[in-house]
Amino acid sequence: MFIVMLKRWTIEALAAGATDLGYPSVAHGMFSRGAVELVEYFMDSCLAKLRETLIVNTEKLQAMTVAERLKFGVRARLEMLEPVLATWPQGMAIGALPQNAPSTAKRLAMLSDEIWYFAGDKSTDLSWYTKRAILTGIYASTELFMLNDKSPNFQDTWAFLDRRVDETIQLGELPQNLNDVAGMASIGLQSVFSAVTSLAGPLAGQIISNSPLSQVPNPISAVGSVVPPSVVSAVASGMPFNSPASAGSAGHDAMAFKSKDLDEINAELEKLGGADASERRS
């Protein structure tokens, strides 16, 4: 990632990386989709590191509430942005371009699924989708908050994250049907694009202004009918609500919660729409 810090999320960074590995600089031509493949590699690497972190901290997680587990997972993932935070707005802008948005949404969905799984959720009903949609919104809004956070050690970011998770669990407000979930998905992507346009800075703004992304409408006026009030409030404050386009990741046999945790997990997940924590994820 040192090369990215110097050359940002560009073809030049791919070429420099190839040179460092002993390949000719033209080897970047193997990446036909260009700089977005560098962004996706970073996101995939972070997901793998997060999975390792959650497995290593199994015993610690077992002593936490569900809310604390969610906060732990989101924070652990966001802390991986610190080395590239100065350039990450450009990476976000590239990932939000229309041709790249589906793969970006898929990776965000996988991230939410991973965190929820380690939080103890094994639901198989509609709540499986709604929990992951809302957690993706919490992650995306906290990520954007972090980009502008100047507080020591990102204290304000972690306080923002704590409030978003606590408010969501306390309110227990979720969409009630598949049409609502579909609406959240489409509005979520648009709101992320809109937020990236305003927050990503001059370089990312230039990228977006030269693409169809600049024509994405502001979705805030349409959000109220399908998104819980707590999420609408976040969007109105300039934060996005996003949701997964698809989800699912490999099972984690190394992670098994003790039976004494299951009643607590079920009770807290019930506030988010209910879940059977005793079933394994398929």
UniProtKB/TrEMBL annotation:
Residues 102-172 form the COQ9 C-terminal domain. GO terms for biological process: ubiquinone biosynthetic process. One of its GO terms (cellular component) is mitochondrial inner membrane. It is found in: Mitochondrion. Pathway: Cofactor biosynthesis; ubiquinone biosynthesis. It holds the Pfam family COQ9. Keywords: Lipid-binding, Mitochondrion, Transit peptide, Ubiquinone biosynthesis. It comes from the Eukaryota. Belongs to the COQ9 family. This is Ubiquinone biosynthesis protein. It comes from Phytophthora nicotianae P1976.
